[in-house]
Amino acid sequence: MIATSTLMPAVCGNAMGPIVTFGASRLAPPIRQVLSAGVGHEDFRTQVEIAGKAGASGYLAGRSIWRDAVSYHVPAERAAAIELAGGRLDELNKVTRAYGRPIHPAASLPEAIEAMPDGWFSSWHPAT
Questions:
Q1: How far is residue 49 CA from its own chain's centroid?
Q2: Could you give the C-alpha distances from 21 to 10, 83, 93, 100, 104, in angstroms and in order?
Q3: How far is Cα 86 from Cα 65, in angstroms, rounded to an integer?
Q4: CB atoms within 10 A of CB 88
Q5: What gap in Å lies between CA 99 and CA 102, rounded to an integer?
Q6: Closest-CA residue to 21 (of 35, 3, 43, 38)
Q7: Do residues 21 and 9 make contact, with C-beta atoms less than 8 angstroms apart?
Q8: Which of 101, 89, 37 is nearest to 63 (CA)?
Q9: What distances in angstroms separate CA 74 from CA 16, 77, 82, 85, one per listed residue?
Q10: Cα separation of 123 and 13, whole Å?
């Protein structure tokens, strides 16, 4: 499922599940996130890649990631499933970094320096 910041939803579908898009308001640009909607991890990974190529900024971690981690009661099996969930998150983060679009445009170094107030670092991490 794909969702953006919204006013009115428009629903359509595909073989991997529903796609919901919402029109952006006049005050905010669309911010797209991919929701797993319970599909398997491989399908969700494909959806994240497609959505990123279409302008999405990220994903919401749902059942496609953690389903196995809560399905097992034997500690060793649960630990293996948690490890698998971590790997899935790593994989989706790589896909998002490769194809996703940042919500805010990157600032140039001069712009970032200009935005920093003098002495910003003095209260950032006080010496002990």
A1: 11
A2: 6, 32, 22, 17, 20
A3: 8
A4: 20
A5: 10
A6: 3
A7: yes
A8: 37
A9: 31, 5, 12, 16
A10: 51
Helix/strand/coil for 43: helix
Residues in Cβ contact with 4 at an 8 Å cutoff, skipping those fewer than 6 apart: 21, 22, 23, 24, 30, 31, 32, 33
Question: Measured between alpha carbons, how far is 80 from 100 in angstroms, rounded to an integer?
Answer: 29
DSSP state of 32: -
116/113 Cα distance (integer angstroms)? 5
Tens digit of pLDDT at every position of the chain (128 positions):
333 333 333 333 344 444 444 344 445 555 578 888 888 899 999 999 998 888 888 888 788 888 888 889 999 999 999 999 999 999 999 999 999 888 777 788 898 888 888 887 777 766 66
Q: Which two tokens stand for residue 128?
A: 């002990």
Q: Note the pLDDT of residue 91.
A: 95
Which residues on adjacent β-strands are paired with residue 9? 22
Residue type, 99: Y
Q: Give the single-character DSSP code of 42.
A: H
